[in-house]
């Protein structure tokens, strides 16, 4: 596969101080650096220098999604292939100026999101998360809303080498979500049908079921709006608890995401009208239009506009 893993998701927010408090005091991330209106937030169990970057801005937007590549040669090869395929590059491959450095480049995906691919980024000193410690271990996956999910899926499969894991489907609406993988995790990226391009949700892996539930309870006790959960999905077999951050982005705690054997795995089509598809446990409220709309998010103002940093 061209892409090795998901590195980080970068968000521009008008309520910078409030968001910093939410992610450090409530969500359980560690701030590893602050620089001119930028906050770099790491997961304790992850070697990535940061998994969320906040940027102070007048307007909310997705700044970029960052993926890893094996080495600088893979970065150069991908950039050359994208340029040949008329994918619009934001910057040619070169040294990165953000925390952790490395070698990479940026481009726009088919929906106008800025995507970064990098290699040789410095790793951070991380640790094994202790039993009972309800903080994120790593960034699990990101789900994106798209008005044409087949086109967006094709872009990531064709140009970045993602593989299709599973599909959510409904008899009257057709395909609703595609789960895509870049390694043996069931999905690092998913594409959801929505009214506009935006972030659907960003997901964080917890140590285990106990830590997942403890974290869910802590966020609930802090008065953060819970959208859906706790429960366990069928596709990916992972748990879910979804909350709205102060800017209205949906954030998820999850654990036990399935790992796949590429040689034997065949994608499934799961009917969302089957209650077991959405929640095998039956502990979450049934999926409804009201719940679904919470993760449509605002129209992303960053389409085909590269972030300033």
Write the topology of this structure.
Layout: E1 5-13, H1 16-26, E2 30-34, E3 38-42, E4 52-56, E5 61-68, H2 72-84, E6 89-95, E7 103-108, E8 114-119, E9 138-146, H3 149-160, E10 163-170, E11 174-181, E12 189-193, E13 198-205, H4 209-221, E14 226-232, E15 239-244, E16 250-254, E17 268-271, H5 275-278, H6 289-294
Parallel strand pairs: 1-4, 5-8, 9-12, 10-17, 13-16
Antiparallel strand pairs: 1-5, 2-3, 3-4, 6-7, 7-8, 9-13, 10-11, 11-12, 14-15, 15-16
Domain VOC: 5-120, 138-256
Pfam family, one: Glyoxalase
InterPro entries: Glyas_Bleomycin-R_OHBP_Dase, Glyas_Fos-R_dOase_dom, GlyoxalaseI/FosfomycinResist, VOC_core
Notes on the structure:
- It comes from Phytohabitans rumicis.
- This is Oxidoreductase.
- The protein has 309 residues and is of the alpha/beta class.
- It has two domains: 115 residues, 2,3-Dihydroxybiphenyl 1,2-Dioxygenase, domain 1, CATH 3.10.180; 157 residues, 2,3-Dihydroxybiphenyl 1,2-Dioxygenase, domain 1 (Roll), CATH 3.10.180.
- 19% of the residues lie in helices and 36% in strands.
- It has six helices and 17 strands.
- It has a nine-stranded mixed β-sheet with strand order 14-15-16-13-9-12-11-10-17.
- It is globular, with a radius of gyration of 18 Å.
Features:
309 residues; alpha/beta; 2,3-Dihydroxybiphenyl 1,2-Dioxygenase, domain 1; 2 domains; nine-stranded mixed sheet; eight-stranded mixed sheet; globular
Short synopsis of the structure:
With 309 residues, the protein is α/β, with parallel strands linked by helices. It has helices at residues 16-26, 72-84, 149-160, 209-221, 275-278, 289-294; strands at 5-13, 30-34, 38-42, 52-56, 61-68, 89-95, 103-108, 114-119, 138-146, 163-170, 174-181, 189-193, 198-205, 226-232, 239-244, 250-254, 268-271.
């Amino acid at each position: 596969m061209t892409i090795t893993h998901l590195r980080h998701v970068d968000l521009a927010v008008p309520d910078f101080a409030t968001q910093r408090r939410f992610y450090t005091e409530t969500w359980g991330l560690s701030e590893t650096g602050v620089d001119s209106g930028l906050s770099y937030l790491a997961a304790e169990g992850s070697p990535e220098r940061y998994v969320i970057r906040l940027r102070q801005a007048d307007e909310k937007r997705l700044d970029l999604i960052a993926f890893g590549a094996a080495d600088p040669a893979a970065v150069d090869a991908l950039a050359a292939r994208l340029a040949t395929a008329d994918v619009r590059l934001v910057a040619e491959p070169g040294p990165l100026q953000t925390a952790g450095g490395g070698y990479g480049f940026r481009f726009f995906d088919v929906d106008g999101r800025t995507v970064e691919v990098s290699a040789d980024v410095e790793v951070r000193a991380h640790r094994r998360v202790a039993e009972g410690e309800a903080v994120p271990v790593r960034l699990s996956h990101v789900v994106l809303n798209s008005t044409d999910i087949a086109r967006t899926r094709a872009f990531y499969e064709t140009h970045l080498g993602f593989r299709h894991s599973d599909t959510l489907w409904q008899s009257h609406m057709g395909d609703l979500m595609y789960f895509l993988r870049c390694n043996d995790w069931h999905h690092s990226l998913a594409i959801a049908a929505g009214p506009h391009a935006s972030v659907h949700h960003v997901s964080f892996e917890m140590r285990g079921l106990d830590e997942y539930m403890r974290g869910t309870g802590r966020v609930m006790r802090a008065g953060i709006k819970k959208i859906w959960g706790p429960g366990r999905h069928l596709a990916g077999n992972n748990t879910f608890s979804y909350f709205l951050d102060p800017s209205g982005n949906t954030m998820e705690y999850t654990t036990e995401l399935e790992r796949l054997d590429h040689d034997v795995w065949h994608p499934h089509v799961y009917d969302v009208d089957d209650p077991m598809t959405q929640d095998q446990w039956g502990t979450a409220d049934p999926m409804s239009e009201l719940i679904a709309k919470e993760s449509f998010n605002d129209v992303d103002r960053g389409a085909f506009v590269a972030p300033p940093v």
